[in-house]
Each structure stands twice: as structure tokens, then as C-alpha cells.
């Protein structure tokens, strides 16, 4: 009997030791897993940020939400900025990525990009895993006030090769954070293909025409004297932007307001008007008959383009249409509307096909304009 009890005791002890070993093994794994639950990211401002390996909830400030959507991560968005919302003053029905994803317009508002405002309390309430921000100082402020990892990404225009490189790198950074690295590579490759195609079509070819973009939308609509000396579609097409003499440095603003007399003096061969400012431009030209002296207006070489702003899909769609106007032989195989649909689909996913049709019926389209006044 005593022997049996000893055996039982020994069995119990062995069982306890085995159980302890098993617990140590799994607890050890749990500790390793805990230690590797974050990953180090170097963002666009060269900041090192620890972000969760698994990201399910995100918000973006500084209009970085468009890139989250481009990366097929709209299901992770828990908030939008006022400009993207259906609230009063929102531009959600003029932004391609929101037209393609109308369900996002009613998400909670976490700030106002136009005023560089952030609603820290609302962000804390929404509890995202990661926040993307459009500039370093904003990122530091957000992270300090919310305690949530905040990653800087490039959201500006791509008017120089350096800016384009920053933008592509930001897509890859965001892809890594969102678990969408393959999608980021796909999108960068598509952008590369568009750049290469436009460059090949216009390389060593001159349209022999000076061009000008008027009514550039910049924090709202403007008249015909609102322009861009570094207008990206012109750059992509190697076109002769007559306003390029202004603000020629790489750090110059993408917007310039010139004098009426300067435009008349330049007298460009072809003028393109951004659709978002068309009403303002028409009102301006109707009040000033001296615009009738412009060669482009006299010859009927004025055309409407979509408001480019910082939407890269619009930028490429505009570039193909402008290419069709300036280099008809080189773009003879391009239907601008069909190409726009392709581009919006590539950037915005399956529902992107509705974007150009929405623009055509509500906001403007690729077409010739008559700005002559009586």
C-alpha cells in the first residue's frame, strides 16, 4: 500500500513538472509574441514610429485618407476629414475617392484639412490603431496628445521628380503599415507605367504651342488668373507651360495668382480651365472684354479639365486628355473618357468606374469651351 502511494505521488510530481514545462513554454511564446506585436516604421519625415503588426482601425489627416483608399483599406477607416464628409461645406461629391466609396461620407469627422485642424478628442474616442498625418509637426502633436502611433506620409502635389519619389515611397510605407504591401507595389507600378507612357508619347516631339492652366482650384474656386507654374499634367507631357517662369524653385507653391495684364501679355496658344472654377472663370471673362484679345480664346483653343488638386488619378486623367489636344497624332489611340475610367478604376477599386460619369453629369468634363464675350 505504501508503495502504491509513492507511485501515485511520483506520478503527481511528474505531472506537475510536465504541466509547469508546458505552461513555461506557452507563456514564453506569449512573451515573445508580445515583444513582436509592434514593428518599427521609418516614415516620410524620417521619424521612427512603432506601429502594431496588425492594424484594423485607421484615420488620416491632411487628406491622407485618399491614399488609404487607394491601398484598398477603406474597410479600416473609422473617420474622415470635414472636406470628405457629407456635412455642410464638404466636397465629398467632388473627390474621386469619395465618389467611389460613398459609404465613407458619413463616418465621424476627425478634423478639417483646409484649416489644418484636428479633433483630438474624437480621434481618441474612435481609438484607431494608427494615424497617418500630412506633415511632421501635425504628426508630433497628434501622437503626443492621443498616445496613438502617428506616421507622416507625403500628401502634396507631385510637380517634381523628387516629390513623385516621395509620394511613391509614402504609398509603400502605408502599404507596410496597413498590410497592403502587394497593393502598394501594384499601384506604384501602375503610376510608373502611366509616367513612362506619357513620356514616350511626347519624347522628342514638340506641339509648338504655349499652354496655360487657369482657374486652378486652390482652397476654393478662382478666376482665370489663378494658375500653376508647375502644373503636373504639363510636366508629365513635356508641355511648354507659359507660367513656368514664376516660382521656378522646387519648393515653390503650386498656386500663383497673376495679374490680368500678365496673362494678356503672355497670350498663350492653348488655355485649360479647371472645372471646379469654371463658373468663376466665366464670370471673370464676361466682365473683362479685353480677354477676347487672347489668341486661345479667338481661335477656340480653350478646354475644360477636371480639377487636379492633389488627386493623382485626376492628374493622370487630365494629362491624357491634354495630351490628346496638344499631340493629336501621338494620342490618336486614346479616348480620354475611357482612359479616365481606367485610371479611376486602378486607383479606387471596382467602384471607380462611376467617377468620371459623376463628374460629367455634375461638375464638368473634358470638352472645348467658348469664353468669348459679346
Can you tell me about this structure?
This protein has 374 residues and is an alpha/beta fold. The chain has two domains: 38-179, Nitrogenase molybdenum iron protein domain (Rossmann fold, 3-Layer(aba) Sandwich); 206-368, Rossmann fold (3-Layer(aba) Sandwich), CATH 3.40.50. The chain is 44% helix and 12% strand. It has 14 helices and 14 strands. The chain has helices spanning 2-35, 65-70, 96-99, 120-126, 136-146, 161-178, 181-202, 232-236, 260-266, 278-287, 295-298, 312-326, 336-348, 355-362, and strands at 38-42, 48-52, 58-60, 111-112, 117-118, 130-133, 150-152, 210-214, 226-227, 240-241, 256-257, 270-274, 302-305, 367-368. A five-stranded mixed β-sheet has the order 10-8-12-13-14. It has a three-stranded parallel β-sheet with strand order 3-6-7, sandwiched between helices. The chain is globular and about 65 Å long. Mean pLDDT is 86; it is low at 20-35.
Q: Keywords, please?
A:
Rossmann fold; 14 helices; 44% helix; alpha/beta; three-stranded parallel beta sheet; five-stranded mixed beta sheet; globular; 374 residues
Annotation, overall tally of beta strands: 14
Query: What gyration radius follows from the Cα positions, in whole Å?
Result: 27 Å
Structural class, from helix and strand content? alpha/beta
Sheet with the most strands, sense and barrel status: 5 strands, mixed
Level-2 CATH architecture of the largest domain: 3-Layer(aba) Sandwich
**Element-by-element helix/strand order:** HEEEHHEEHEHEHHEEHEEHEHHEHHHE
Helix content: 40-55%
Largest sheet strand order: 10-8-12-13-14
CATH H-tier superfamily of the largest domain: Nitrogenase molybdenum iron protein domain
- Please state the overall shape, judged from the principal axes of the Cα atoms: globular
Give the CATH topology of the largest domain: Rossmann fold
What percent strand?
5-15%
Rounded mean pLDDT score:
86
Amino acid at each position: 500500500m505504501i508503495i502504491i502511494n509513492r507511485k501515485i505521488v511520483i506520478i503527481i510530481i511528474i505531472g506537475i513538472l510536465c504541466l509547469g514545462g508546458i505552461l513555461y513554454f506557452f507563456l514564453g511564446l506569449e512573451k515573445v509574441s508580445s515583444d513582436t506585436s509592434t514593428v518599427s516604421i521609418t516614415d516620410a519625415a524620417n521619424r521612427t514610429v512603432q506601429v502594431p503588426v496588425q492594424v484594423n482601425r485607421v484615420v488620416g489627416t491632411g487628406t491622407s485618407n485618399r491614399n488609404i483608399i487607394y491601398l484598398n483599406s477603406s474597410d479600416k477607416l473609422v473617420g474622415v476629414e470635414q472636406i470628405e464628409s457629407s456635412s455642410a461645406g464638404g466636397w465629398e461629391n467632388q473627390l474621386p475617392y469619395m465618389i467611389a466609396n460613398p459609404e465613407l461620407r458619413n463616418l465621424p469627422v476627425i478634423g478639417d484639412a483646409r484649416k489644418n485642424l484636428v479633433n483630438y478628442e474624437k480621434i481618441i474616442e474612435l481609438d484607431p490603431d494608427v494615424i497617418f498625418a500630412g506633415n511632421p509637426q501635425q504628426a508630433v502633436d497628434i501622437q503626443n496628445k492621443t498616445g496613438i502611433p502617428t506616421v507622416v506620409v507625403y500628401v502634396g502635389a507631385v510637380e517634381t521628380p523628387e516629390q513623385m519619389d516621395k509620394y511613391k515611397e509614402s504609398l509603400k510605407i502605408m502599404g507596410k503599415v496597413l498590410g497592403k504591401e502587394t497593393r502598394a507595389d501594384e499601384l506604384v507600378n501602375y503610376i510608373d507605367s502611366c509616367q513612362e507612357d506619357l513620356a514616350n508619347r511626347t519624347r522628342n516631339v514638340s506641339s509648338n504651342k504655349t499652354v496655360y492652366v487657369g482657374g486652378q482650384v486652390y482652397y476654393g474656386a478662382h478666376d482665370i488668373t489663378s494658375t500653376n507654374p508647375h502644373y503636373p499634367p504639363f510636366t508629365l507631357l513635356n508641355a511648354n507651360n507659359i507660367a513656368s517662369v514664376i516660382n521656378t524653385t522646387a519648393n515653390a507653391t503650386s498656386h500663383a495668382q497673376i495679374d490680368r495684364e500678365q496673362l494678356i501679355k503672355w497670350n498663350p496658344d492653348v488655355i485649360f480651365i479647371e472645372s471646379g472654377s469654371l463658373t468663376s472663370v466665366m464670370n471673370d471673362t464676361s466682365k473683362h472684354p479685353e480677354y477676347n484679345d487672347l489668341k486661345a480664346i479667338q481661335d477656340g483653343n480653350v478646354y475644360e479639365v477636371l480639377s487636379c488638386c492633389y488627386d493623382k488619378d485626376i492628374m493622370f486623367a487630365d494629362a491624357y486628355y491634354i495630351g490628346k489636344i496638344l499631340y493629336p497624332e501621338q494620342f490618336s489611340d486614346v479616348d480620354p473618357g475611357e482612359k479616365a475610367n481606367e485610371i479611376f478604376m486602378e486607383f479606387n477599386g471596382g467602384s471607380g468606374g462611376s467617377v468620371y460619369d459623376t463628374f460629367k453629369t455634375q461638375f464638368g468634363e473634358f470638352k472645348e469651351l467658348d469664353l468669348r464675350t459679346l
